[in-house]
Amino acid sequence: MAGDSVRFEDVLTQLEQKRQALEKKQTETDRLYQQREEDARKAREFRTQMERARDNARSRGEADARRILRDAKSAADQTMNELAELRRKQAQADAAQNLNEAQAAIRRGLNEAEEKLRSREFEPEPIPKPSRPIQKGDQVEIPGVKTPAEVVSVGKDGSLQLQAGRMKMTVKADEVRLIEEAQRKKSAPVRSNPDRQLLRPAATSELDIRGMESIEAESVVETFLSAAVMGRLETVTIIHGKGTGVLRKAVHELLRRNKAVKSFRLGVYGEGESGVTVVTMK
């Protein structure tokens, strides 16, 4: 009888131990589930914060936009670290898939915010209206190139034929800036070698056409390439963005037709990858 009593107590002890183990396992499961819910909530809040940051970036100044982007990146890194830790602890496959989707959504939001910020940084400089109609013999500049050229004739449609050294090109009057008489006297070129003076390379060799229509972009790129030839630039970069690829295709077709282009390629890592095209001039 004493032996039966001992065995019965052993059974009760084992049952109690199993019950405690199950409660501990249930507690751990509940904790992981609550942690997953909390991290998912943080991801949703961060997505909302990203959307709000993109909206604010459109109306705030450049400094505010950069600060918002920097804070967003910091929050993104922190959130992704927390999500990575949760993924390591979770044993279920569906939890890992949800975490991957959350990370992808965060990265998409960051890319969109960065794209918006770049668009603000590369807004083209407005062309001031001349004080008088441009005439034959005037000196003009193509915005973004700062290479002076002389107007050799004015067409009936208002188009201008320019010459810089041996190079000639035709542009619209609203695509160039008139060098006023006072400015010409202040920065008169040295006449000992005028061809060399006019063909001096510009300070910039980069053109941003993101947001333009294909037809508008083609005219701008043609003018940019003509200026690159006048400035004797060996390599130039055209920023067209990734997007749907329509603008990139239009630029590449134009480059194939342009006789001044030796070759071109998409950017590599660090240059902008498929969002830019690097052009080598002849």
TrEMBL record:
Q: Does the keyword DNA damage apply?
A: no
Q: Which InterPro entries match?
A: MSSS, Smr_dom, Smr_dom_sf
Residue intervals passing through the bilayer = none
User: What GO molecular functions are on record for this protein?
Assistant: endonuclease activity; hydrolase activity
Look at the named UniProt entry and state the broad enzyme category this protein falls under: hydrolase
- Alphabetically ordered keywords of this record: Endonuclease, Hydrolase, Nuclease
- One of its Pfam families is MSSS
Extract the ranges annotated as region (Disordered): 21-67, 115-138
Q: Which SMART domains match?
A: SMR
Q: Which residues form the Smr domain?
A: 207-282
Which EC number applies? 3.1.-.-
Q: Indicate what this protein is called per its UniProt record.
A: Endonuclease MutS2
The species this protein belongs to is bioreactor metagenome
